[in-house]
Amino acid sequence: MVRTLLLNKPFGTLPQFTDKGTEGSPRPTLSDLVPVKGVYPAGRLDRDSEGLMVLTSDGRLQARIADPKHKLAKLYWVQVEGLPDEAALEALRRGVTLKDGLTRPARAERIDAPEGLWQRDPPIRVRKSVPDAWISIELREGRNRQVRRMCAHVGHPCLRLIRAAIGPWRLDGLRPGEWRDAPDLPLRG
Q1: What per-residue string of b and e applies to 66-105 under the rule 16 or more CB within 10 Å gives b?
Q2: Domains of the chain with bracketed CATH
Q3: Which of 49, 109, 125, 178 fits a 20 to 30 Å CA distance from 80?
């Protein structure tokens, strides 16, 4: 039986089921949150990022979600340092040149803090002299730490990064560490 789950990965949790990293105390992994056997992450989400991950037992679905050639949309809520102006947002929309080349155009806009947002543990670094803002960024590619690098490139370092959606799937009220079975939805690019 094919099983697909949606998980709200908390900050600091590795996006894998085992910790093959440093010696010492083990770091939290997906196995601390999801007791379901035979499901695997479809794509990654950095340890210092939060939000939606899709876990599935369907290898073809896993490849469809993870492979950038399918251009599946991924939506991020990003708390950034400073107040991005229209020029910074327009640069994200056009695509920016990073060390690994020009990014595809993205949807980018300033937003209010997302409704129902949970407190992060640990909290973000706050500087009294520097304001922060939230932006929404939708990508159709998935380079390593791409959202963080794009925001830094336009002068607004990322303070907090939450993936809110992958294709048709949304966080929709999942609290950090919670998971649920995914509705069977068709995938579109």
Answers
A1: beeeeebebbbbbbbbbebeeebbebbeeebebeeeebee
A2: 1-71+173-182 (3.30.70.580), 73-166 (3.30.70.1560)
A3: 178
